[in-house]
Amino acid sequence: MTTRKKVNKIRLKKLNNKTKRNKIKRNNTKRNNTKRNNTKRNKKKYHKGGQQQSLPIIFTVEYSGLGIIKPNQDLTGQSQYYNNQPIINLQNSNNNSLYLIIMYDPDAPNGLEATGKSSNHIYTHWVATINTDTNNNSNSNKKIFVEYAPPTPPKGTHRYIFNLYDITIKKDNLNFLNTLIMDNNDTRSSYYNNKLSNLEKSNPIIFSTSYTVKANSDNNA
Questions:
Q1: DSSP letter string, 109-171
Q2: Which residue among 10, 16, 94, 122 is the one 20 to 30 A from 196 at the CA level?
């Protein structure tokens, strides 16, 4: 084989290798672009059973200085944080929707350890609605129906439960919204039964979380 043929063969081999590398690079770029596009779509929607559905709502409760509360977290001795109104965060909520948040204690006044259901009642700590805007800003247009009352368990361990309801269907129903207002006939011990006992029949809970606080000598009755 002449020197020129050898040189041409080497050049051809290098050219083929370069072509292969470019092809692999283009394929990788195409796959990465496809992956990014799928990721963007999945942030808006996910598929289940071949049908496109909205992402599930993520509901978190946060106290300034303490962070997001974990389900069933023990906050005993953390009154410097929970004495302040909690911060509610909603992710993947629907635009222009109305959500109802209820915080209550089902273990008042004697605590979770008390025997016999008749010994305790539901004590309402906070009721508010959040009207999400087009940016899903969960802190916009918040309306308070029952002012926040921080936990002060007199005895035993108490659960403080946050329930989230989607009441968009009642968004323009002023009669329903007016019934949520705490009036002179209500106490925090009677409010839940008077105003909310039938709520779950037409508006199931879409998310719930809670924390616990155990009574100590620093708490008031």
A1: TT-TT-SSGGG-EEEEEEEEEEE--TT--TTSSEEEEE-------SSSEEEEEEEEEE-GGGT
A2: 94
Query: 157, 175, 98, 176: which is closest to 133 by C-alpha?
Result: 98
Listed in sequence order, the residues at least 6 apart from 206 whose beta carbon sits closer than 8 Å to its beta carbon are 57, 59, 164, 165, 166
Grouping H, G, I as helix, E, B as strand and the rest as coil, residue 31 is helix
CA distance 27 to 54: 31
Residues 116/108, Cβ–Cβ less than 8 Å: no
Count CB atoms within 10 A of the CB of residue 170: 18
Of all residues in the chain, what percent are helix, strand and coil, respectively (each to 5)?
30, 30, 40
Dihedral of alpha carbons 180, 184, 189, 194, sign: negative
Question: Is the alpha carbon torsion for 139, 159, 220, 108 positive or negative?
Answer: positive
Identify which of 104, 65, 132 has the alpha carbon closest to the alpha carbon of residue 195. Answer: 104
221 versus 14: the higher-pLDDT residue is 14
Q: In this structure, how many other beta carbons lie within 10 angstroms of the beta carbon of residue 6?
A: 10
**Distance of CA 54 to CAs 44, 51, 91, 103, 143, Å?**
7, 10, 12, 26, 26
Q: Tell me the whole-structure pTM to 2 decimals.
A: 0.71
Instruction: Report the pLDDT value the prediction gives residue 218, as an integer from 0 to 100.
Output: 42
